[in-house]
Amino acid sequence: MSHHVPVYINGEFRQSFSLEWLDVTNPATNAVIARLPCSTEDEVEEAVASARETFKSWKEVPVPERARLMLNYQQLLKEHHDELAELLSSETGKIIADAKGDVWRGIEVVEQAANIASLMMGETAENIAADIDSYSITQPLGVCCGITPFNFPAMIPLWMFPMAIAAGNTFVLKPSDQVPLTSIRLAELFKLAGAPPGVLQIVHGQKTQVDYLLAHPDIRAVSFVGSVPVARHIYQTGTHHLKRVQAFAGAKNHLVVMPDANKEQVISNLVGSSVGAAGQRCMAISVAVFVGGAKEWIADLKTEMEKVSPGAWNDDKAGYGPLISKQAKERVLDLIKEGKAQGARCELDGSHCEVDGYPDGNWVGPTLFSGVQTDMSIYQQEIFGPVLVCLEVDTLDEAIALVNANPYGNGTSVFTASGAAARKFQHEIQVGQVGINVPIPVPLPFFSFTGWRGSFYGDLHAYGKQAVRFYTETKTVTSRWFEDDIPTGPNLTIHLR
User: Fold this and answer.
1) Which part of the chain has CATH 3.40.605.10?
2) Boundaries of each Aldehyde dehydrogenase domain copy (predicted)?
C-alpha cells in the first residue's frame, strides 16, 4: 500500500497541499509504493524562510556543540543502518549489499562532519608590520540548498547537509522525485539526534521547484549531483543568480589494462565495477582499454560476466538490481541496439534479461562490447547501465591520449605491475580521481570528491576540506594595539572570571 510522502518544514513532517503528485515505484516490480507531492510555491517559500530565520541563531551555536550533533547523528545512523538499507532497496531496487554500502559511505561523511572544529580553523600571522597582527576567520554562508539524484539516496544527501549544517549553515534539501523515502528517514533520524527545528528542510518536486530554489535570493549556495544537461542548467542558472554552485555531472570512466597486470584481479574488478549497482553510479567503469596483449583477456572477461545476473534486493545470489525506471531501461536497450548497428561486437547481450518472480522489473543483464570505436554512441554517451565497452590500443601513451580526449574527467584507473607505468599514468592523465590497481577510486571523506572537466561545474568539490570552503566564507582581520593605551596605576583592577 502506498502512502503520501511528507514535506519537512521548520522541524515538522506534514502533508503537502500540492495538487500535483507523482508515483514512487519499486523498480523490481514497478508497483507504486508512495505518492510524492510537487511542493507548492508557498511551501518552498516557507522552507527557505524558516531556514533563513533559523540561521540567525544556528550560526551562533558553538562549533563543539554542532560537532556533538553530528556525533549523535552518526551513532543513530549506525544503529539504523540495516533498516535504512532495506528502505533504500525498496525505492532504488539495489541489492542489500549495495544499499548497505550506500548508507555506510554516507555515515563516513557524517563522521567527518563531527570533526568540523578543526576544519573551521583559520590562520594567524603575528607582526606583519610593527605591532600589527593578521588572522583569518571561517564563517558560514547562510541558507544552502542540495538537489540530489536517484542513484545514491543516502550517501549523496549525506555528502551535503551534514557538512553544511556542521559549518553553521541551514539547509534546504530537494531529493530525487524517484527516491524520496530515504531522505525523509534521514531527516527523522537527524531530528531524533537533536537537530533544532529549521536547520534542515525537505521539499519535493521537479524542475519547477528546482528553478524556484535556484532563483531565490535567500539561498547562498547550491550543491547538485546528476546528469550533464541538468548539471549545466543548475550551474548556469544558479551562477546567473549570483550563487555559489557545485554541480557534479556525468562520466565515462576508463580502466586501462596493461599486459603485465594481474589477470585475475583485472577481470574480477572489471566485472564488479562495470555491472555493480546495475552500472548506475557516476564512478562505474564503463570503458575497458586493453593495451597490447591484454586484449586476449576479453574472452575470459566475457566468461566471468556471464556468471553475474540481476535480482531482487533480498536475493543473495543476485549481482545487482534493476534499473531505476522503465524509461531508463529503454534508453539502455536503445544504446545497445545502436552499438550493434554501428559495428561493435556484442560479446554478451543482456537485452532480453528476465528474473523469475519479477516479470515487470526493469531488468538488463550484463552486456559486453568489443571492437568499439570512439565515434560510436556506446562510447560517447554515459549509458548508466550494466554495459561495458572494450577498446584496444598498442601503448600506454595511446591509452592516456584516448582517456584525455574524452570530454569527461570523473574517475579512471590503471592496472599494472609497473611502478613507472603507474607514475606516468597518474601524472599525465587529466582526470580528477585516479586508481592504481583500484577500479573505483572514490576518496574517503577526509579527502574530497574531485571530478574534473565535463564531469564537474564549479570550483570547490564535495566533502572533505573543499566542502568546508564551499559552505563558508573567509574573513580576514588585521589588528593593531598601541602600548601607550595599556592601563597603568594604582586604580587598575583586574577582574577574573
Assistant:
1) 3-250+451-479
2) 20-477
